[in-house]
Amino acid sequence: MLLAAMTYSARKSTYETTQILILGFNGNLRSWWHNLLTEQDKQRILIATRTVVKTENSSTPIQAEEPDMVNQLLYTMTKHFIGSTQIHLNLATEALLGLKCHKMSRYKWYKDTFMARLYTLTTCGADVWKQKFVEGLPHYISKKFYQTMTTNSVNQQIDWANLTYGDISSTVQMICVSLCT
After folding, report:
1. What is the pLDDT of residues 140-172, one digit of tens each?
2. How far apart are CA 169 and CA 107, in angstroms?
3. What is the pTM of this model?
4. Where would you tag: which of 11, 14, 97, 113 has the fewest CB atoms within 10 A of its CB?
C-alpha cells in the first residue's frame, strides 16, 4: 500500500492519492472503511494536515500546513489491523538474542537475518549488538575473531564503538579464508 501511495503521489495531489487508495480497498479494508469507521473518523483522515517549517530564500522560518491524508490513512489502518508495534519489537529482540550461526556455510544467511532483524530495533546502534553478532558465530571462529582483534589493537581491547559490521564481516571472512588455506 505504501508503494502504491508513493507512486500515486508522484503525479497526483495528496487528496487524490488518498481517494484512489480508498477506492482500491477490497475485502477487510473495504468493510473496515465502509462499516466500522464513522463519518467523523473518515473526515478526520480526509482533512488531516501537518505543520512543516519552511525556509524559502530567507533566513526566517515560516510555518505552513501541508495535507497529510495519506500518512493519516496508513497510520489509522496500521493501528486498527496491527495494533501496537511494541510487541513486534520485543519479538524481534528475542529472535535476535537467540540467533546463532552453527556452521560457517550458513554465514551469509546469519549475517543477512541478523542485519534485517537488527534494523527493526531502536537500539540498533548499540555496541552490544556487535558483540552479539560475533558471539553468534561458531565458537572457534568467534574465538579467533577476538584473538585477531585484540592482537591488532594497541591496548589489547576491542574498540566496538569504532568497529563497523563491515569490519567485523571482513575480519570473519579473512579468518575463514586463512583456515581454508
Report:
1. 999 999 999 988 878 888 889 999 999 999 999
2. 10
3. 0.55
4. 11
Q: Which three cell numbers stand for residue 5?
A: 501511495
- Rounded to whole angstroms, how far apart are CA atoms 27 and 154? 63
The DSSP secondary structure of 73-133, one letter per residue, reads HHHHHHHHHT--SHHHHHHHHHHHHT----SGGGHHHHHHHHHHHHTTSTTTT-HHHHHHH
CA-wise closest residue to 50 among 30, 36, 73, 71: 71
- Hey, what's the cell of 55? 525556509
Q: What is the pLDDT of residues 59-110, one digit of tens each?
A: 777 888 888 999 999 889 988 888 776 666 677 778 888 899 999 999 999 9
| H or E element in which residue 58 lies | none
**Identity (one letter) of the amino acid at 82?**
I
d(CA 46, CA 67): 9
Phi, psi values for residue 60, rounded to 5°:
-85, 120
Helix pair 14-23, 69-81: axis angle to 10 deg: 40
* Domain layout of the chain by residue ranges: 2-81, 86-180
